[in-house]
């Protein structure tokens, strides 16, 4: 059996609204993708272009999310780990390919039935994790554009749910939506 490395990363731990997303990617050594990097260091247009390439050229990939409601129930760390597990499962279901090793970005790894390593700053060290970070970020950003259409008063397209001055001002003005994370400080404060 050849060695297949799956990289996994999440996007959206910090925002006050929306789901947390994760992606799992097994790259194809025969079809390298130029320009992979930590998604936070890339422009939106570069991320979008790379996401298309990753989906076209990777051996396998999967994307999954954990909702704001689930985040409130189990906390953001557990939700991030769950999103990673769901992303891996989505990849296996979609492509029928299992990895021989999983590497995740960060210092905590979810439980899998194959070896898994957590790598601090893995999204800038491991191409597979970089690719996963790009897919997770672009999927999450796309979901925030949908929220922006549902809740046009909140400016989700601009701040993507992060606690910016604009977002906090709109929260104070219009109240919380069902997509806001009630366990997060600024939202919790409005509830009390």
TrEMBL record:
Cited SUPFAM superfamilies: Ribonuclease H-like
Keywords carried by this UniProt record: Cytoplasm, Endonuclease, Hydrolase, Manganese, Metal-binding, Nuclease
Subcellular location: Cytoplasm
Residues at which a divalent metal cation binds: 9-10, 105
Keyword flag Manganese: yes
One matching Pfam family: RNase_HII
Record text on cofactor binding: Manganese or magnesium. Binds 1 divalent metal ion per monomer in the absence of substrate. May bind a second metal ion after substrate binding.
Reactions catalysed: Endonucleolytic cleavage to 5'-phosphomonoester
HAMAP family in alphabetical order: RNase_HII_B (MF_00052_B)
Protein name listed in UniProt: Ribonuclease HII
Organism: Methylophilus aquaticus
Lineage, highest ranks first: Bacteria, Pseudomonadati, Pseudomonadota, Betaproteobacteria, Nitrosomonadales
């Amino acid at each position: 059996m050849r060695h297949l490395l799956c990289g996994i990363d999440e996007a959206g731990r910090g925002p006050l609204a929306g789901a947390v997303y994760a992606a799992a990617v097994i790259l194809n050594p025969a079809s390298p993708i130029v320009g992979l990097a930590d998604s936070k260091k890339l422009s939106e247009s570069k991320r979008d272009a790379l996401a298309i390439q990753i989906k076209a050229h990777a051996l396998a990939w999967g994307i999954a999310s954990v909702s704001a409601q689930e985040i409130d129930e189990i906390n953001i760390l557990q939700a991030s780990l769950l999103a990673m597990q769901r992303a891996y499962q989505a990849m296996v279901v979609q492509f029928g390919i299992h990895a021989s090793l999983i590497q995740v970005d960060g210092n905590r790894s979810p439980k899998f039935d194959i070896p898994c390593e957590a790598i601090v700053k893995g999204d800038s060290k491991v191409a597979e994790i970089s690719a996963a970070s790009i897919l997770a970020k672009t999927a999450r950003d796309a979901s925030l554009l949908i929220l922006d259409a549902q809740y046009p008063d909140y400016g989700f397209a601009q701040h993507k749910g992060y606690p910016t001055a604009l977002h906090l001002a709109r929260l104070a003005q219009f109240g919380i939506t069902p997509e806001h994370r009630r366990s997060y400080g600024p939202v919790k404060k409005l509830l009390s």
